[in-house]
Design goal:
heterodimer; A: 341 residues; alpha/beta; 4-stranded antiparallel sheet; 12 helices; 12 strands; B: alpha/beta; 8-stranded mixed sheet; binds adenosine-5'-triphosphate; binds magnesium ion
Chain lengths: 341, 333
Amino acid sequence: MSDGAVRSPFLALEDVKTHFPVTQGFLFRRRTGAVKAVDGVSLAIQRGEVLGLVGESGCGKSTLSRTIMQLLRASGGSIRLEGRDLCAVSMKQIRRERINFQMIFQDPYASLNPRMTVYDTIKEAIRTRHPHVGGRAMIRRVSSLMDKVGLAPKLMRKYPHEFSGGQRQRIAIARALAPEPKLILADEPVSALDVSIQSQILNLLAKLTRELGLTMLFISHDLGVVKYISHRIAVMYLGRIVEIGSPREIMEKPLHPYTQALVSAIPFPDPRLERTRRRMVLEGDPPSPMDPPGGCPFHPRCPFAEAACAREVPALKEYLPDRPAACIRIPEIHPGIGSRE
Amino acid sequence: MPLLEVNDLTTWFHMRDGIVRAVDGVSFTLDRGETLGIVGESGSGKSVSCYSLLDLIPKPPGRIERGTAVLGGEVDLLRAPREVLRRIRGKRIAMVFQDPMTSLNPYLRISTQMIEPLLIHEGLGNREALRRAIESLEEVGIHDAVRQIDLYPHQFSGGMRQRVMIAMALITHPEILIADEPTTALDVTVQAQILELIKARQRELGTAVIYVTHDLGVIAGVCDRVNVMYAGTIMESGTVDEIFYNSAHPYTQALQQSIPSLHDKGKSLYTIPGAPPDLTEERSGCPFAPRCAYEEAHCTGPNYRGLDAFRGRHKTACLRVLEGELNLKEENR
Ligand SMILES: Nc1ncnc2c1ncn2[C@@H]1O[C@H](COP(=O)(O)OP(=O)(O)OP(=O)(O)O)[C@@H](O)[C@H]1O
Ligand SMILES: [Mg+2]
């Protein structure tokens, strides 16, 4: 690529909104409002990048990933994959192309068919891309995928219930890789696992992304986990992205007050550090997306809020190079950091 | 004299396909006002050890096979008559669970549920009990408690419900609060609030807390001493500093090294090979041996003696550490 050319991102979200109608009444259902689960998200993912998406329960992380997959259709905005807007493509066409997206879920047991052996599960996934592979060639492919995810190929005739939670997650990962997807969406893939098993799966995902150059959206509520696997991290609060940065920047120099609170709330397995560190404890619970506050969605819990914060939704602005954040008070909270725009 | 002294607690479940040795010879003490953490992976027996103390084990299939749990040097909780135990449960020992809805009745107003123990255990009148209930809601940071107390549990958010649970648990000013994963279902920012709240109330009331969690970060933040559990037994027991900076058991170390939050990106996380043991299988010797990096033949031999003193009150179940064959500090240099 020539110098100065703008590299168009692999996946680009522009002001994406996913709203669910809220209806009332039984016989005559009236539309009385909307849950704005995703409300104006703009994000870009480069080829080969792992983008971590963190946020607390109900902030819209999973809705966003389903919208990218086109399992839910956006109420507004555009989602461009290699330049093409998926929101403008017919559902029929989307279904045909869905193999380009694969998901890995939190509960590997619920997402695997209990009556299918590992071989059948992976075979079916390979067939979506290569319908004519069979016989020995198929066995070779299944074996090689099992190898990649650290499962002994001799286990291919076994059923999901014969495996532990960690092994099941490996099967789910092999199944996701089988159709050679362009994008992997991993929604809390290690949250249900014990620490010792969690580290095995995180190591595996990190190795696979490195070796295969996978592009992945990695969703988790656990900043420690996200930090370990991601190239960049986007922080979400009540349907919006409030800050983006590298793992180091987010952990060490968070700009947005919500990110500051999130980082400061993580308990570190280090008693001396815990005894001395000053914690920013927020008041109240996250608000419901049914009834979001006006203005900045974080302002009712924000220790830095002032009258202006309740009036307008702050836009994501680059306060530092490649460090967009959505908070009008940043220049005052962080003296020396101003808006570049 | 410790406030609670548990000795050789052994709780098994007699299932059709075998005996689940959920808790297998657990001994520990709890001092007045201190916070004792119980940490371990899923199925290690953390909850069953706590439930055993309060007669909350379903029997059958559960059975307390052996042991004693002496409260205040006088009552053995494992043998006390049901009536005595019920009084202790409402008044001297309280419990908070992961899911507040398991202990809140969805059909009753918060007020009704909160004043009940006061009517029963403290013999207060309705009016006085209600006043105390409102006061204790205010003490856990619930605004407008006079109105909130008349709501039903589902009208509260998860964090608020856990506050209500804590208020209810502490309303009789118990000597011991057992908190079983009280923040696991909550968001981290809300977890931070609840942890601060428990600490503050504990300081005010002088309550001793047994804190059950799988999260070593939470342990580091709230506990004075820690029991590390694996396969129904305690692997190591010591002060938080001993456990985190001077660990005397390979399992404790392995757990610490597998947490991603302290790692730099790019470096692989430590992983413990294999999977936790099947508790229905009879075993001899150290239950962690098959997954341990330092295992030797005698770890599973007849000399294995379980948890024993390492230095002062710091205890470990690792035979090789106890015998002076293994120095984990040296190994990790
Ligand atoms: N009612 C029961 N019937 C049969 N087995 C049980 C029962 N309750 C617990 N167990 C078994 O006892 C063992 C210990 O369980 P326990 O709930 O104490 O683990 P834990 O350490 O609290 O785990 P977690 O972190 O998942 O809460 C497990 O093997 C569990 O399956
Ligand atoms: Mg438990």
